Amino acid sequence: MSLQFRVLGSIAVLLVLSLLCGGTLLILHARSVVEVEVRTAFQGAENSVRDTLQSDVQHTVTMRQVVSSFEGQRHVRAALINEQEKVIVSSEIGRLKDPAPQWFARLMMPPPLSARFNIKLPQYPCVVELTSDPRSEIADVWDHASDAFVAMLLFCAATMTAVSLAVAYALRFFRRFQTGLLAISDGGYDARLDAKGPPEFVALAQGFNHMAGRLKTFSESNQRLQQQIQNVQEEERSGIARDLHDEVGPYLFAIQVDANILAKSAEPQTRSMGTAIRDAALHVQTHVKEILRQLRPVSSLDFGLEPAIADLIAFWARRHPDIRFERTITATPGLDRRGEDAVYRIVQESLSNAVRHGRPTRIEIVIADQTDRVMVSVTDDGGGLKQDLPGGMSLGQMGLMGMQERLSMLGGHMTVEGGRGVSIRAFLPKVRELEIA
Ligand SMILES: Nc1ncnc2c1ncn2[C@@H]1O[C@H](COP(=O)(O)OP(=O)(O)OP(=O)(O)O)[C@@H](O)[C@H]1O
Ligand SMILES: [Mg+2]
Fold first, then answer.
1. Is 178 a member of any domain?
2. Which residue of 16, 91, 157, 291 is most buried, as measured by CB atoms within 10 A?
3. Is residue 63 part of a domain?
């Protein structure tokens, strides 16, 4: 569940709970208001009827007047009832404006109140009956309560809107922060965050930018060191190769020449010794050549990356004519010799892995220029990573590790995706002008 959803969800639950509490308190208060109002009105009516009856009760006309004085009253109804309990005349409650809904009226309804006054007129004994009617009061309370509830609802909606805006703002910053961290983890040490907004965000952004700057410095000095080490190694090898070639080469040649002379001698024993010396010299020469080749390899990259990759493909295509090889290679300016060498080795190992472990029918090689980096991908449709088909021969599972090492030396990285087939993707930063100390 996302953080945004959690924060907004908890605030929404709190607001609903406070709405429920507020609503309950409102109803309890309104209920007591209705009860007090109706009871007060009823007691007033009761007192007024009692006063009237104490003064003048000589004629039924008076009683009719008493009843009609309650006409249009809001909370009390009066009726004149004869001996047979028949209503002679009764008052009507004042017209209700907008009656409250039934559920609300039922909640508010106070206990009914009634009072009867017996009037013992000699020729016309009767009863004046008063009853309470809270509907008008309940309608009033409904008016106020519904207004108050709508106001509370509006307040909750406004609070939710304000909180969602604040949370969205905060999360937008954290999303940028996350994107920056992802860029850093992909080796993009140039990523920087805008140090704007609230002080907490500014401090975080500054910390992030400082960290990215330091990482960039370390990575550049690391690359410089790697380059220096490689240069030193290459120089050393070239020196040894030169010495070997210059010191040993002429003597070997001289031995061969002398041995040839001996081999042509009339003396059979000298002839056979000459042949043996010549063969031994040839043997040593082959070995020296091999050592020289290892020290100063003649790379297929000497003719460019694209022909070198074409050679690799041709190598495997000759042995596996059933596999379709496809390649898309765009120009790769910005890769130095080490970069090209890494690309070549990655393609070489990926092709070899695909053919040996996957049994594919198609392998696609893409080398693409992506502004400040070069992307190399080798994708096959073989059995995928888990399925190492019989026939795969491993030299100790060093291939993928070697690729990683080569890439990290150059500040690059790679991903390996398996599924139906395997896709290797490597990313190499282009060479910047690194001052070599
Ligand atoms: N294209 C592929 N298809 C199927 N499996 C693969 C593929 N590439 C790599 N793998 C799997 O990943 C493992 C590791 O590959 P890696 O190149 O590191 O080692 P290896 O090929 O087994 O040995 P080495 O390369 O040292 O000779 C392989 O053993 C194989 O199981
Ligand atoms: Mg391998």
1. no
2. 91
3. yes
Measure 346 CA to ligand 2 centroid, in angstroms: 10
The environment of the single-atom ion ligand 2, i.e. residues with CB closer than 5 A, is 353, 399
pTM attached to this predicted model: 0.45
Q: What is the CATH number of the domain that holds 144?
A: 3.30.450
Q: How far apart are the first and last CA of the chain?
A: 52
Query: 424 and 389 in one domain?
Result: yes
What residue owns the CA closest to ligand 1's atom 8? 353
Whether residue 76 contacts residue 2, with contact meaning beta carbons closer than 8 Å, is answered with no
From 357, 379, 389, give the residue whose CB has the most ligand 1 atoms within 8 Å, as the site to mutate.
357
Indicate the residue among 263, 278, 295 that finishes a domain: 295
H helices of 186-301, in order, are 199-243, 249-263, 268-295
Q: 425 and 414 in contact (C-beta within 8 Å)?
A: yes
- Please check whether residue 233 lies inside any domain of the structure: no
Q: How far apart are CA 266 and CA 104, in angstroms?
A: 137
> Based on the domain organization, do 314 and 408 belong to the same domain?
yes
Indicate if 286 and 370 belong to the same structural domain.
Answer: no
Count up the domains in the chain and report the number.
Answer: 3
**Ligand 1 pocket test target in 320, 350, 351, 353 with most atoms within 8 Å of CB:** 353
Per-residue tokens: 215:
């990482």
199 domain-assigned: no
Reference 279, options 251, 254, 260, 292; nearest CA is 260
268 with 397, same domain? no
Ligand nearest to the CA of 397: 1
Distance 396 CA to ligand 1 centre (A): 9
pLDDT, tens digit only, all 437 positions of the chain: 777 888 889 999 999 999 899 889 988 999 999 999 999 999 999 998 888 777 755 655 677 888 888 888 889 999 989 888 898 889 988 777 788 899 999 999 999 999 998 887 777 778 889 999 999 889 989 988 889 889 988 999 999 999 999 888 888 888 888 999 998 887 788 889 988 888 888 999 999 999 999 999 998 888 788 778 877 887 788 788 878 887 887 888 889 889 999 999 889 999 999 999 999 999 998 888 878 777 765 566 778 889 889 988 998 998 899 999 999 998 777 788 888 888 988 998 999 899 988 889 999 999 999 888 999 999 999 988 865 555 444 445 678 888 888 888 888 899 999 888 999 999 999 875 443 33
Residue 351 CA: which ligand is closest?
1
Residue nearest to atom 29 of ligand 1 (CA): 397
Which residues line the pocket of ligand 1, CB cutoff 6 A? 353-354, 357-358, 380, 382-383, 385, 388, 394-401, 422
Domain that holds residue 285: 245-295
Contact 346, 403 (CB under 8 A): yes
Q: Which ligand is nearest to the CA of 423?
A: 1
